[in-house]
Structure formats: structure tokens, C-alpha cells
Amino acid sequence: xxxSVRSLSYDELKRNxxxxxxxxxxxxxxxxxxxxxxxxxxxTALEELLKEDGYNVIRKELISESCQINxxxxxxxxxxxxxxxxxxxxxxTCEIGYQCVKTVFPYKKVIGTAKTFGAGNFSxxxxxxxxxxxxxTCLEPNTEGYTLTNLVENFNMFPKFFDxxxxxxxxxxxxxxxGKPLEVKKDSTLLDELLANRIRIPHLCYDSSLGSIxxxxxxxxxxxxxxxxxxxxxxxxxEGMNVTTEDEEITSLRKSVLQMIIAECEDDIQRSxxxxxxxxxxxxxxxxxxxxxxxxxxxxxxxxxxxxxxxCILCGRCIRACANLSGQKVxxxxxxxxxxxxxxxxxxxxxxxxxxxxxxCVHYCPTNAITPKSISKxxxxxxxxxxISYPKKMASTS
Length: 398
Ligand code: SF4
Ligand code: SF4
Ligand code: FES
Description:
By secondary structure, the protein is of the alpha/beta class. The protein is built from 14 helices and 17 strands. The protein binds iron/sulfur cluster (2 copies) and FE2/S2 (inorganic) cluster (FES).
């Protein structure tokens, strides 16, 4: 099956429509339905959302295999009157289906809603998984598969269907990002809003569910009127803010941070999907700085986890995950400045700590510094995030 994820927010969808439009919702009933973003139920949900907001939906059309252009053409002929009247067609299909509909209706406003990543299959445990990504995704083929959650998180797509976006009227303000106006939620974090609007910013230490500590310096941006570069993960949006997310100075700083990480840590760190992505994006091919490699002891004392401090970039995500999600304080920072390290317990082996084996730290570590010994053998009886398919697993299997 083809694996697709929703690529448009409900607000973006509405920006493409006018209240005068006569809207047809066109949905495929095959692969995209299994990806949770199409099918009759989803069309009805979208119709209700749009009608509540004053839009005129004149028809819903469910077509199996919308990626077959001949079927799309036949359907156009069969429903000629409807399509003559329609001024906008919202397409709940994969990108291939969208291209077919666009070809069949060259003079209509056709709005695609999905990003298609490649081919995959349906796993009983994980749901739809991507195993053979398109080359354009820069992902490697992976028999374990990338879950929809992985794709949403790593490509700044949108989870679930449009009804998931409906919040009770969040107050909006307008900022300018790279010269373009952007409506964002008041009182939110700049990095969250940039990512929500699919502006890709590297962020190794930040996660919206863990909060910010501004440690990695990868998310630095420029804000007019503020001195120097500022971490977008620690900055609140303000009305009229003028933000630059990428220029020579920003790129050069991010490249230096990446080079330092690569120089200091094990070569293995390049197996981190995020780091590999940014190395490719910034065309970093080799280690420029000759720094002594870390030579810390790998802790495999735990029955469940292995901790390799040589891969640690001191982002602190595991510390916050352990404290905030597990309610434990098993992992901590010790020392200061260039001597800073992460330790478990009172600098003792993992096995001697109160670790609850929840694997929250594994899930949030961006570099595979903490990995499960064997998820499949240890999984039963552990909390919910044990069942999550971790982004770093994507990297470690490549
Ligand atoms: S497995 Fe859970 S309890 Fe153990 S160190 Fe990681 S986050 Fe803390
Ligand atoms: S172990 Fe992983 S999550 Fe924890 S500080 Fe190091 S790199 Fe970050
Ligand atoms: S993500 Fe902002 S400093 Fe790390």
C-alpha cells in the first residue's frame, strides 16, 4: 500500500477556500483510508467542519483507486452536472490521486491534502508502516518500517484528520518569518509555531512535551531588535516579531555546532536520523575538527537498557523525560562547563538505580545514547511509550 500523511492544517485548507466556493470533497477509499486521512467517515467529518464554518459543500464523492486516471475521468463524466457547478475540489487521496484529479479538472481549484512517502504495509501492532520510501524523502528502506507518528514528527506533517486541529478559537497574532506574514497562536513558543507551519528548524534538545533548556543551540534564529542569535525554543512569539530562520550566519553556526558534535562523539552518532538529515542538508561530509573522542564506559548493567555516554550530546531530553513522564530522577547532569556529563543515580550503574524501565528516555534521546536491549523480549508489562516506534530506531536499523 501507499503511505501518506496529512500535509495541510485545517487553517491552511480554509485559506485556500472562499465562502462563495461550491465545494466537492473527493476521497479515495483504499490506501489513504487505512492511513486515517480519507474514506466516507472522514469526508463526513470534514463536511461538518466546513459547514460549521460557513462553507458550501455541495457533494461528497467516494472513489476507489483515485490514482487510476481512467477511473477519475469516468467519474467526471458520470457526475458531469455536479462537477460543472463545483468551483473547488478538496482531494482526500495520496499525491498520485491528487495529480490524477488535477489532470482531469485542469480549470478547477483542486486542493491536495496529503504527502505521500512511498510504499509500505499494514502492521497489526504499528498500523500502516512505510518500508520503501521515495528517494526524495532521504529515508533509507527499512523492513521494520516508519510509523505514521514517525513521519508526522520528522517531516512536520499533521497528525490524524482535520477535526484534530479544531481548538476552541485560539487567539492569533501575526509575525513575519523570512519576509512572509504568518499567523501564529498567541503565547506559544516560536519554535513550535515555526515547526507547525512546516518551517524546518533543527532542534536537538527541544521537544514540545518536555519543554526547553536551550542547550544544543541548533534552533537559533534572528529576531529584529534583539541582539545576536536567539534560541527559538526558548522564545515566545510576539505581535509584529520579524524572524529570520536561515542566512549565512545562522547556517554557519549550525554547521559548527554539528561539526563539534560529530568531532566529539562516536562516529555512530551519525546513525541518528536527525543529525544525518542536517549533515546532508548542510553538506557536511567529514569531521573537520580533530578533537579527542570520548572514551566513556558503556553501561549495560541494566536488564533492559544500554547507555553509551560516548554518543551523548548533553541535550538533557532523557533527564526531563525521566522526571516529567516517569516521575523518577534516575538520570542527571553532573559537573559543569566542558566537564559536564550525564550520570545515572549517584553516578552508579543503571542496574543499581530506581529505573522503572519505562523507556521514556529511550524514546526522547536523539542520538541513541540510551537504547533498549531488546524491545521485543521486554515489551510486555511496560507502559504505553514502550509500544511507540521510536524515530531513532529508524536510524539504528539503517
Ligand atoms: S527507563 Fe524510565 S525510569 Fe528508567 S531512566 Fe529511562 S525514563 Fe527514567
Ligand atoms: S543520553 Fe541522549 S537524551 Fe540524554 S542527554 Fe545524552 S543525548 Fe540527550
Ligand atoms: S532546540 Fe533550541 S537550543 Fe536546542
